[in-house]
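Side project, low priority. Logging it here so it doesn't get lost.
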Amino acid sequence: MVAIPKKPVLLTGASGGLGRVLTRNLAAMGWTLVLTDIVPFPDPVPEGCRFVKADLNDGVTILKLAEGCQMILHFGGVSTEKSFEEVMGPNLKGLYHIYEAARREKARVLFASSNHSIGFHERAEPLDADCQFMPDGYYGLSKAYGELMGRMYWFKHGVENVNVRIGSSFPEPVDARMLSTWLSYDDLTHLCVAATMAPVTESCVIWGASANSRTYWRSDDRAKLGWLPQDTADIYAGQLAGKLSGDPITEHYQGGGYTRMDYTREAPPPAKLFGG
């Protein structure tokens, strides 16, 4: 039996790669979706859904879009490494508008966080969800900020939130790193369903990866949601295990290529600098 929310669900970033996947999959389940993005929706809008072009920096519009919604699936904002000025508006101020809308509507938030919030942890260091933030750029820094905002809104206002540290969500993994970080589209969809339909989430953190045996990540709060990934990157190991970047910085850290961007140190810092 398909779980259908009693009230509409707001999906930001609907025109992006993951937003389009979620729109298609959730609409096929019969969900009523309010879709929004700063750019037009490139596909036909599914039956039972509506799209409104909006900027996350426009708090009044975000409040209107969230009216009557029980859940906000927040995939909007800058989704790759950019300058601080480009990241600051949508990813910091925009997220504030999302949480203010959730507070007013008594809605839950799923925040699309990222592995780049912890990207400077070494790959040899298995992590639990309560590990320290070690962002690998301005994008990752904004995701750490987003998780902290969720904690504040839970403790101060009782706004429930699910922070999903997405690894690498693509149709299939394309290199050796993704054998550890890959999240299938089906597992992502079912995670969004579980986050929406769970009786209680409080403020929790989930590693956004499929059931990959090479994972860098261990315990999280998935038991609160009743979510277990069904797919695995292991079936691609034979063709991808040797597909490496050849760059020592990229291969040293969990954040991969994002750690190399604008990197000016001569060598990886010793782990003891970060309490390792």
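Brief comment: Confidence is low (pLDDT under 50) at residues 272-276.
Revisit when time allows.
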